[in-house]
From TrEMBL:
It comes from the Eukaryota. It is found in: Nucleus. The keyword Magnesium does not apply. Residues 1-146 form the TAFII55 protein conserved region domain. GO terms for cellular component: transcription factor TFIID complex. InterPro entries: TAF7, TAFII55_prot_cons_reg. GO terms for molecular function: RNA polymerase II general transcription initiation factor activity; translation initiation factor activity. One of its GO terms (biological process) is RNA polymerase II preinitiation complex assembly. Belongs to the TAF7 family. Keywords: Initiation factor, Nucleus, Protein biosynthesis, Transcription, Transcription regulation. This is Transcription initiation factor TFIID subunit 7.
């Protein structure tokens, strides 16, 4: 597996990166290099291209994205699972307030965690603890202390 990441940049930065990657290596330009460095927390940092720097954030994606590559334009080979994205922002843009990017990468994944995934159940922690203790007691060969027995009977209706 390759090591891969998703780098999301503003349109102006994307044009500069594309120009840098497509130009002749022998040509002279002040945008010759770009660099990403992260701060101590590992979630924020700086992206530098030429003499300009932009703030970055490392964000978790709501779902794992699979990456594929091909050698002959007909057979795809899975090369990585990507779960995080490096987002480059304009200097005046606000930093994300959460570590998870809630919208995914494509328009159908807009607010994906809220719309597509099951919600956490509302469980009473005391009830969970009691049930766990009862299950451990039963598996050890004992009897549960707090069992409620409900008896249902169903009568058929005749016409």
């Amino acid at each position: 597996m390759d090591e891969q990441f998703i780098l999301r940049v503003p349109p102006s930065v994307a044009e500069r990166i594309e120009r840098l990657l497509n130009e002749n290596p022998s040509s002279s330009s002040d945008d010759k290099s770009f660099d990403i460095s992260f701060s101590e927390d590992g979630r924020t940092g700086t992206f530098v291209i030429g003499n300009d720097s932009f703030p970055v954030s490392l964000l978790d994606l709501p779902a794992v994205v699979e990456s594929y590559k091909t050698y002959d334009d007909s057979v795809l080979i899975k090369s990585a699972d990507i779960g995080q994205m490096i987002m480059v922002r304009e200097p005046d843009d606000a930093a994300p307030d959460a570590v998870e990017y809630k919208h995914g990468l494509t328009p159908p994944m807009r607010d994906a965690r809220k719309r597509r995934f099951r919600r956490e159940p509302d469980l009473n922690p005391e009830l969970v603890r009691r049930v766990e203790e009862d299950l451990l007691t039963i598996t050890a060969g004992g009897t549960a202390e707090t069992i409620d027995i409900l008896i249902f009977s169903v009568y058929g209706l005749c016409m």
